[in-house]
Amino acid sequence: MIERSHPIRILPLFTFFLSLMSAFSLSTAKPAPQTGTWKNPLISQRADPWVLREEGAYLFTATVPEYDRIELRRADALSGLGAAAPVVIWRKHASGPASHHIWAPELHHIDGKWYVYFAAGRADSIWAIRIYVLECTGADPLAGPWVERGQLDTGIDSFALDATTFTHKGSRYLAWAQHDPKIGGNTNVYLARMDTPWSITGPKAMLSKPDFKWETAGFRVNEGPAVLIRKGRVFLTYSASATDANYCMGMLTADENADLLNPESWKKSPVPVLSTSESAKVFGPGHNSFTTLPDGSDVLVYHARDYRDIVGDPLQNHDRHTRASIIRWRDDGTPEFGYGP
After folding, report:
1. Is 309 a catalytic residue?
2. Does domain 35-336 sit in CATH 2.50.20.10?
């Protein structure tokens, strides 16, 4: 009980109540949403980045400059992935399948097991790129053991790469890029249902082929699909054109209740959703993945160079660095992709 003679009576009653309300508000206010606390580039010389947030930790894999192995690394925060020690879980074969051009690995946790999807060629035919699958039944994917599930048969024996998988309304899907000899060009984006983590079933659909000028600069390419399901829609991003400063991101959008295997369900953006920015010093952004922050914010992870001019073959240039950017959501429910936190 406060005596009337307590010094607090020198404060006007109204001011006293305001002070109490302010203190109560500060003590019960929710923490401010977490924002980007990392610096770009997030990880140097790692192209085709894939980040999976699992049980509060971030797991990372990407194409290494030597194109000869698959690495995983783990960190408690997205900002810690650059300093995290990489662990090699698999190396290319000396000959035969999966002995050259080890590209674009992705790590997925499916029904209690770990899977890595990656693309690889052959030492005796380096552009015979196909999709392969690794499996780990252990609890820790960095510890293994990993076994080979072999080539994932897409139904067309041609250049194929950049497989990703996702679930939607009870079905698991595989999206990937592949060359169709009947169409020409380089690669298109396809989708099919999966019956096991290493096989597809039923019809496959070609969702996108290079049509626009920004998809055909240097090469006619649609590749690197990644899926984000939000706000009643399914967003499928992909990368287009040659892997120099022309490289950029496109996007397909479908209603979440649509038949995803019907190409008519998807609407293609007529312009890139992320492309080279001189002012941001981001050149050739693409081959992205998606993750989240602990506060639920969506994050775009992608690779890019910090300069335009490349000497020689872009594929032999190691300066495609992993970057990350928080996704902003427009009032119409579509994502806005930026260049940094």
Report:
1. no
2. no
